[in-house]
Design goal:
With about 775 residues, the chain is of the alpha/beta class. Helices cover about 35% and strands about 15% of the residues. The chain folds into three domains: about 260 residues, 3-Layer(aba) Sandwich (Rossmann fold); about 210 residues, Dimethylsulfoxide Reductase, domain 2; about 120 residues, Barwin-like endoglucanases.
Length: about 775
C-alpha cells in the first residue's frame, strides 16, 4: 500500500462548523443533567438508560467505566451518584448501535480512517471477533478458537518473548489484570506498558521516593476536614466532576480552596450540585478563594516562591509556620532542602510563574494560616520534563507543614481511568518489584522474568526499530493516546501482528500490523456469565478502596467474551507447559481472587471483604505516617529545579487538554460547553495580547509546528480563539495535536511524554473562513 493510501493515523484535518456560546458562570447544575439525559436518550433509550443510571456507582451496581474518583464510603446519593461524563460513558457502552461483520465487509480500513475519532466511536459496539489478513482492505469475521491459535502461533514464533508488547488500559478489572500479567510473565517478559506511563507515572515516581508509596494518602472524608485544598494542574469540572462535590464539602465546613492552573476553568470557580434540584438554579457554591493562573510549567517556581515567603516568616517567628516536631520525627533532608531553597530569590522566581507578586504573597499567607492541607493534581503537573520534580516539590510543601498522615491533609493525585490504580496494584508494570515476582514464583511454580520491560515510549521505539513484532492491547485506543502520532503509527505498521481487546471501534483498529485482530469484550454494564454462574469483578479507586462491580445488562452479542476469559483463551493457546488451570480460574472469579490474596499484600480475606458493600481500603503507609518503605526509612525532602525552558522570540508553550465532551481518547460530542466553544475541535487557545502582537484575529486559520532538538512536526488547520491564559502559553485538544509531541521529549525518571510542554510556533495560513 502506498503512503498516499495508508489509513490515517491522525484525525482528519476538517472543520466541523464552529459556534460559540456564553461561558457559564457555574459548572454542573441543570445543564449537566440535561446533557446527561440527552446522551442517554440518544444512545440507549430513556427507560433502559434510567434503569442503568440507577445502578451506576451504587454499592450493589456497577462501577463507572469513566474516571477513578471514589464513591462515598457511607450513604450514596439516591438521585445520581454519578456525573455528566459518567452518564456519557454509560451511554457510549450501552449504545443501541452495532458494528457487525457486515459493517466491516462494507467499510474498508482506509475509508474508516477518514472518519474523525468522534464518528468512529459513534458507530457502536463491536459484536464479533474480526481479522484483517495481510494485504487485505477489510476485516472479516473469525472464530475465537482461530483467533487464539493465530495469536499463540505468532507469539511462539518470536525469537524472544521480549519481541512482544502487552499494553493495558486503565479500565481493565483487577481479575483480568492479574491474569493478564500472570500470562505475560509466564510467557517470559515484563513488557507490560500501560496508560499510567503516559499520565501519572511522574506521580508514582515522585511519591515513592519521598513517601514510600506511589499512591495518594487522603480519603474522600479528608476533604470534610481540610483547612485548605490546593488544586494544581487539573480541571475537575470536565475530567472528574464528582470531585466538585468534595470541594463543596470543604467550603461548607469552613475550608479554603486555592486553584493553580494556566486556564481559568469554570469548574474550579462555581459549582451547582446536580444531586440537589433545589440548587439547580443560581450561581451555585463559590469554590476557589484564590485563583493563580500560572505559566505552563511554572509550578516549581511558584511553590519555591511560596516556600521562601514561609521560610522568611518562620525565621522571624520560629516554630509558628513549620511543623518542626513532624519534620524531626518523620523526615530526612530538611537542612539540605532549606540550604538549597535559600539559593533562590523571590524576585527572580516571580516572573517565572507569570503571576502577580501580590497574589503569590496571598497564596503564601493562606498556606501559613492553615495546618491541614490537601494538594490535588493531575496531568498539568506530571506531563513535563520536570514532572517528577513537580510532584516532589508538592511533597516538600506538605512536609514543611506536617500535612501528611493526618485527617484533612495529604497528597491527592487524581487518577484517570476507573481502575488504572488497581491495574498497577495487580502487577501491570514493566518494572515489577522482587517481592511480587517471588510471590508469583512460589504460588504458580515458575520463574518470572526479572529483566525490566518496555514502558510506552520504549515500546513504541522498540516496534519502530523492529525489536518488537507483536502488539497486544488490553483495552484503550493506543494510537490516539500516545505521542508523536505518525512515528507511533509507523511503529505499529512494522509489527507482524497487532491485537486489540475492545468494546467499540477506534482509530487503533485502523493503524495495524501486517495482520490484525479485534477481540470484542463485555462491558462494565453487562452480565458476566461463567460456568459457575454470574460473576462480579473488582476495581480500586484513586483513594485505594477495592470494591465490586456487577453488570446487569444482557451482553449485546453472544460472541463477546469477558476479559478474564480472553486472557485464559490466549494463555491456553500460547503456553504449552503452564501449571495454571486457566479455564478453571475463569469458571469462578473467586478462584482468581484467591490467587491475588496469595500473592499481593493487603488482600487478606479478599473474597469475604470485597462482598462487604462499599468494599475495603488497602494499606497505605503514608496515610499511617509510616515512611519505612523509602530508601531512608523517613519521608524525604528533595531538591528540585524550576523549569529550564527558554523560549525564542516567536515561540510558544503548548499544552494538550480535553473538551467537556471528552474522556481521555473517547469523544462523546463536539462541544466544550465550559469554554464556550461548540461543534469544533481544531482550535488553539491564545492570549489576546499575543494574538495582537502576531496580527491574529479570532478564528484566523493557523498551522502549528513543534520544535525539538532540530526536529519539526506539523499540525495543520487550527482556528485561533482568544482566552484568559498567560502570555506565550497556548492550549489545544488531544488527540488532534498529539502529532506535535516528540517521542523523545519525555520526563526525567518517569519517561512520561511531555504533552503539557510543547515548544511550538504558530503560522497564519491567510484564511479566515468564519470572518
Amino acid at each position: 500500500m502506498s503512503d498516499k493510501n495508508k489509513p490515517h493515523a491522525q484525525p482528519p484535518e476538517e472543520y466541523t462548523g464552529i459556534e460559540f456560546t456564553k461561558v457559564p458562570k457555574t459548572a454542573a447544575g441543570v445543564k449537566a443533567v440535561k446533557s446527561a439525559l440527552t446522551h442517554i436518550k440518544d444512545e440507549v433509550g430513556v427507560v433502559k438508560g434510567i434503569e442503568l443510571l440507577a445502578k451506576l456507582n451504587q454499592k450493589d451496581g456497577f462501577d463507572c467505566p469513566g474516571c477513578a474518583w471514589p464513591d462515598p464510603d457511607e450513604k450514596r446519593a439516591f438521585l445520581a451518584e454519578y456525573c455528566e461524563n459518567g452518564a456519557k460513558a454509560v451511554a457510549e457502552e450501552a449504545t443501541k448501535e452495532r458494528v457487525t461483520p457486515m459493517f466491516f465487509a462494507t467499510h474498508t480500513v482506509e475509508s474508516l480512517s477518514e472518519l474523525s475519532d468522534y464518528e468512529l466511536g459513534k458507530k457502536g459496539r463491536i459484536t464479533h471477533p474480526m481479522y484483517l489478513k495481510e494485504g487485505a482492505s477489510n476485516y472479516e469475521e473469525i472464530s475465537w478458537k482461530d483467533a487464539f491459535q493465530l495469536i499463540g502461533k505468532e507469539l511462539n514464533s518470536l525469537n524472544s518473548p521480549d519481541e512482544a508488547i502487552f499494553y493495558t488500559s486503565g479500565r481493565t478489572s483487577n481479575e483480568a489484570a492479574f491474569l493478564y500479567q500472570l500470562f505475560v510473565r509466564q510467557f517470559g517478559t515484563n513488557n507490560l506498558p500501560d496508560c499510567s506511563n503516559m499520565c501519572h507515572e511522574s506521580s508514582g515516581a515522585g511519591l515513592s521516593e519521598t513517601l514510600g508509596i506511589g499512591k495518594g494518602s487522603v480519603t474522600l472524608d479528608d476533604f470534610n476536614h481540610a483547612d485548605l485544598v490546593i488544586v494544581m494542574g487539573q480541571n475537575p469540572g470536565t475530567n472528574h466532576p464528582r470531585m466538585l462535590s468534595a470541594l463543596k464539602e470543604t467550603k461548607k465546613n469552613g475550608g479554603k480552596i486555592m486553584s493553580v492552573n494556566p486556564l481559568e476553568e469554570v469548574g474550579l470557580i462555581n459549582f451547582t450540585d446536580p444531586q440537589n434540584p433545589l440548587n439547580w438554579f443560581g450561581d451555585g457554591t463559590h469554590l476557589t478563594d484564590l485563583y493563580l493562573q500560572v505559566k505552563i510549567n511554572g509550578d516549581v517556581a511558584l511553590l519555591k516562591a511560596i516556600m521562601l515567603l514561609l521560610l522568611e516568616e518562620e525565621e522571624k517567628n520560629p516554630g509558628t509556620v513549620f511543623d518542626h516536631k513532624f519534620i524531626e520525627e518523620h523526615t530526612k533532608g530538611y537542612e539540605d532542602f532549606i540550604s538549597d531553597l535559600k539559593k533562590y530569590s523571590f524576585e527572580e522566581l516571580v516572573p517565572q510563574t507569570g503571576i502577580e507578586e501580590a497574589k503569590i504573597r496571598e497564596a503564601a499567607q493562606m498556606v501559613l494560616e492553615n495546618k491541614n492541607i490537601i494538594i490535588c493534581w493531575a496531568m498539568g503537573l506530571t506531563q513535563h520534563k520536570n514532572g517528577v520534580d513537580n510532584i516532589r516539590e508538592v511533597v516538600n510543601l506538605l512536609l514543611l507543614k506536617g500535612s501528611i498522615g493526618k485527617k484533612g491533609a495529604g497528597t491527592c493525585p487524581v487518577r484517570g481511568h476507573s481502575n488504572v490504580q488497581g491495574d498497577r496494584t495487580m502487577g501491570i508494570w514493566e518494572k515489577p518489584k522482587e517481592g511480587f515476582l517471588a510471590n508469583l514464583d512460589k504460588e504458580f511454580g515458575f520463574t518470572a522474568p526479572r529483566k525490566h520491560g518496555y514502558d510506552v515510549v520504549e515500546a513504541i521505539e522498540a516496534m519502530h526499530e523492529n525489536k518488537a513484532k507483536v502488539f497486544f492491547g488490553m483495552g484503550g485506543n493506543f494510537i490516539s493516546a500516545t505521542p508523536d502520532t505518525e512515528f507511533t503509527g509507523d511503529a505499529l505498521r512494522k509489527c507482524n501482528l497487532t491485537v486489540h481487546v475492545s468494546t467499540k471501534l477506534n482509530r487503533s483498529h485502523l493503524i495495524h500490523g501486517k495482520e490484525a485482530l479485534i477481540l470484542p469484550c463485555i462491558g462494565r454494564t453487562e452480565k458476566d456469565m461463567q460456568e459457575s454462574g454470574s460473576q462480579f469483578v473488582s476495581v480500586e479507586n484513586s483513594m485505594g478502596v477495592v470494591h465490586q462491580s456487577h453488570g446487569d445488562l444482557k451482553p449485546l452479542s453472544d460472541q463477546l467474551l469477558s476479559e478474564p476469559a480472553i486472557v485464559a483463551g490466549l494463555a491456553e493457546a500460547t503456553l504449552k507447559d503452564s501449571k495454571v488451570e486457566w479455564s478453571k480460574l475463569v469458571s469462578n472469579y473467586d478462584l482468581i481472587r484467591n490467587k491475588i490474596e496469595a500473592t499481593i499484600p493487603g488482600f487478606e480475606n479478599y473474597n469475604e471483604r470485597v462482598r462487604i458493600k462499599g468494599g475495603f481500603y488497602l494499606p497505605n503507609n503514608a496515610r499511617a505516617k509510616d515512611f519505612k518503605p523509602t530508601h531512608t526509612g523517613k519521608a524525604n525532602f528533595t531538591i528540585n529545579k524550576p523549569s529550564e525552558i527558554v523560549l525564542e522570540k516567536d515561540q510558544f508553550l503548548m499544552m494538550t487538554i480535553r473538551t467537556h465532551d471528552q474522556y481521555n481518547t473517547t469523544i462523546y460530542g463536539l462541544d466544550d460547553r465550559y469554554r464556550g466553544v461548540l461543534h469544533e475541535r481544531r482550535v488553539v487557545f491564545m492570549n489576546m495580547e499575543d494574538m495582537q502582537e502576531m496580527g491574529l484575529k479570532k478564528l484566523d486559520e493557523v498551522d502549528l509546528k513543534s520544535h525539538f532538538h532540530g526536529e519539526v512536526r506539523e499540525a495543520h488547520k487550527f482556528l485561533v480563539i482568544p482566552c484568559s491564559i498567560p502570555r506565550r502559553c497556548t492550549a489545544t485538544y488531544f488527540p488532534e495535536t498529539n502529532v506535535l509531541v516528540p517521542i523523545r521529549s519525555k520526563a526525567d525518571i518517569s519517561n512520561t511524554p511531555t504533552s503539557k510542554t510543547i515548544i511550538m510556533t504558530i503560522h497564519k495560513t491567510g484564511n479566515n473562513k468564519y470572518a
